[in-house]
Design goal:
Its EC number is 5.6.2.2. GO terms for molecular function: ATP binding; DNA binding; DNA negative supercoiling activity; metal ion binding. Heterotetramer, composed of two GyrA and two GyrB chains. In the heterotetramer, GyrA contains the active site tyrosine that forms a transient covalent intermediate with DNA, while GyrB binds cofactors and catalyzes ATP hydrolysis. The protein is α+β, with helices and mostly antiparallel strands and 655 residues long. Strand 11 and strand 12 form a beta hairpin. The radius of gyration is 28 Å and the shape is globular. The N terminus is likely disordered.
């Protein structure tokens, strides 16, 4: 962080604004952290880390260290200015105690502390205190060390302070150590390294120059040399390195990443863009104040608008399009684009149920203006780059024109009139999408059993013939001409690729992939997931996609039977039998082998079935893995298989 970017206002007790007490938090924790499951648990860490990142955004911190401890606690340390410890004018307590024990008390609220602040809920460290068994805070500030302990939201004793040693007098910063309360998080309080690491890596990319150290000091992380596992995330190039990481398995159309970093009316806009030869859809990650805006927002709208306008302008300037030619559409221009857009907004407004859509109307124009100016200037001086981008966009335009009739056919089909739906779809009688579900099955035999076994009121069945198209390496023309893909698009009411997803048009709110538990079934699942992720990613992000989990075995003993979903289940069931017990084991090779009643009992009955919802914890990693596994390049796929082969339980593979 440069000295010029620092917030010059003094940071003391008077910058801490007070709103309300902590009583409601323990009564209704879900209102403050979303849930008391895994997401809420990890959100506690994010709240504390966000405070440290705020110090970095203000230019006062360049290192953050997170440590997971064996006792279930986690500590977050930064080298910022330290939480103020002087007496707060309204509460009569130290600013530190106020921040920890009063809801919404913090430098995030009001203009005196931070110009820009991260954090989705913005509820602050007091909520962490309320939902923890204990919290210990150590502050190094103004040549003193301050310490205070809290238990379940209440302070234990007063603030203790002592002078720092001569060698430490230049040190500043805050360390917050806390242990989540198992009375609140009844599903468990163990942190998952992978979930935290992906978010911390993302924060390091978004805040170039900030070093984030993540160490796991739990015994299970010890390696053969008895060393704890530690990762350091440090990216001086910031989001340029982010895009570079996202595209390293792809063929770049142009070598240099196009980069924009500018500010207008207090809004900072940072964008990095690169087009790739071997990609047929765009991948745009949007962030507002370090929050991933899954549902887009005005900043993304601004970026898309300026890209379309600027590149169409250059197409005419460069003689690629004549006056009478139709303009290149936005999706043509964005084909193959990988971009990261990060905006920092003083007063962000988040919309939608999950608060992951930026709503500030002024941001649209600011992004349009700043990106347009920088992009035009770059392309003027790099004519070779704009020619390559335009050639790809024109190819996409021509491919789209070739598929136009198929697209219009899809567009015209009503989402509810059964006469326009695929003939092989066995629809449900309900017209309420929220209670309806569709099973996508492989082949007519499995489809036949599913049709007979289902509950016709709310369960629809769509059988697919063979393996669908791999759309990771397919252009739009082929997608819309493919019969199986068309059946999927029409049956689900997906609309057109590249258009904004409309939940109201989705005919079923549970889309269940039901395939055999063998290698072919796994491949079909992967092809379908690739289709949903690349064609209409909002389906996956919205939690509409599920994987059915049919059993592998049926164990019969006398008149009783048990279904086992894996080898471990089977061994556990058999261990309950005596040595001389008589029983039989049926191994299901495919769904078509099951009787309709069996399929209903094991895989379709909401009371007894097992299903997995497909969720994306790490958008970047999901995008990269789809490219590796389903793209054109063989070498990255081979490397991925070699790296992860030892994690496989070969006894579960049907080979």
């Amino acid at each position: 962080m440069s000295k010029d970017s620092k917030v010059q206002a003094a940071y003391g007790a008077e910058q801490i604004q007070v709103l309300e007490g902590l009583e409601p938090v323990r009564k209704r924790p879900g209102m403050y952290i979303g849930s008391t499951g895994s997401k809420g648990l990890h959100h506690l860490v994010y709240e504390v880390v966000d405070n440290a990142v705020d110090e970095a955004l203000a230019g006062h911190c360049d290192q953050i260290t997170i440590v997971l401890s064996e006792d279930g606690s986690v500590s977050v340390s930064d080298n910022g200015r330290g939480i103020p410890t002087d007496i707060h004018p309204r509460t009569g307590k130290s600013a530190l105690e106020t921040v920890l024990t009063v809801l919404h008390a913090g430098g995030k609220f009001g203009s005196g502390g931070y110009k820009v602040s991260g954090g989705l809920h913005g509820v602050g460290i007091s909520v962490v205190n309320a939902l923890s068994e204990w919290v210990e805070v150590t502050v190094r500030r103004q040549q003193k060390v301050h310490f205070q302990r809290f238990e379940r939201g209440s302070s234990i004793g007063s603030l203790k302070s002592e002078d720092m040693s001569k060698s430490d007098k230049t040190l500043t910063g805050t360390t917050v150590c806390f242990k989540p309360d198992d009375q609140i998080f009844t599903d468990g309080t163990s942190f998952e390294y992978g979930i935290l690491s992906s978010r911390l890596r993302e924060l390091a990319y978004l805040n170039g120059g900030v070093r984030i150290v993540f160490r796991d000091e739990r015994n299970k992380s010890l390696d053969s040399d008895q060393q704890f596992y530690e990762e350091v995330y440090f990216y001086e190039g910031g989001i340029k390195e982010y895009v570079d990481y996202m595209t390293k398995e792809k063929d770049s159309l142009h070598q240099e990443i196009i980069y924009v970093n500018s500010e207008k009316d207090g809004v900072q806009v940072e964008a990095a863009m690169q087009w790739c030869v071997d990609a047929y859809s765009d991948s745009i990650l949007g962030f507002a104040n370090n929050i991933r805006t899954i549902d887009g927002g005005t900043h993304i709208e601004g970026l898309k608008t300026v890209l379309t306008r600027t590149l169409n302008s250059f197409a005419k300037k460069r003689g690629k399009r004549k006056d009478g030619d139709a303009n290149l559409a936005g999706e043509n221009i964005r084909e193959g684009l990988t971009a990261v857009l990060s905006v920092k907004v003083p007063d962000p407004e988040f919309e939608g149920q999950t608060k992951t859509k930026l709503g500030n109307t002024e941001v649209r124009g600011i992004v349009d203006s700043l990106v347009g100016e920088s992009l035009s200037q770059y392309l003027e001086f790099n004519p070779g780059v704009i020619d390559l981008i335009l050639e790809k966009a024109i190819q996409a335009f021509n491919a789209a024109e070739a598929a136009r009739r198929a697209r219009e056919l899809v567009r015209r089909k009503s989402v509810l009139e059964s006469s326009t739906l695929p003939g092989k779809l066995a629809d449900c009688s309900s017209r309420d999408p929220s209670e309806s579900e569709i099973y996508i099955v492989e082949g007519d035999s499995a489809g036949g059993s599913a049709k007979q076994g289902r509950d016709r009121k709310f369960q629809a069945i769509l059988p697919l013939r063979g393996k669908i198209l791999n759309i990771e390496k397919t252009d739009d023309a082929k997608i819309y001409k493919n019969t199986e893909i068309q059946s999927l698009i029409t049956a689900l009411g997906l609309g057109i690729k590249g258009e904004d997803f409309q939940v109201k048009n989705l005919r079923y709110h549970r889309v269940v992939i039901m395939t055999d538990a063998d290698v072919d079934g796994a491949h079909i699942r992967t092809l379908l997931l690739t289709f949903f992720y690349r064609y209409q990613k909002a389906l996956v992000e919205g939690g509409y996609i599920y994987i059915a989990c049919p059993p592998l075995y049926k164990v019969e003993r006398g008149k009783n039977h048990t279904y086992c979903y894996n080898e471990s289940d089977l061994q556990k069931t058999l261990s309950n039998f005596g040595e001389k017990a008589n029983y039989s084991i049926q191994r299901f090779k495919g769904l078509g082998e099951m009787m309709p009643k069996q399929l209903w009992e094991t895989t379709m009955d909401p009371k007894t079935r097992m299903m997995k919802r497909v969720e994306i914890e790490d958008a970047l990693e999901a995008d990269r893995i789809f490219t590796i596994l389903m793209g054109d390049k063989v070498a990255p796929r081979r490397e991925f298989i070699e790296t992860h082969s030892l994690e496989l339980d070969f006894s579960t593979l049907d080979i």
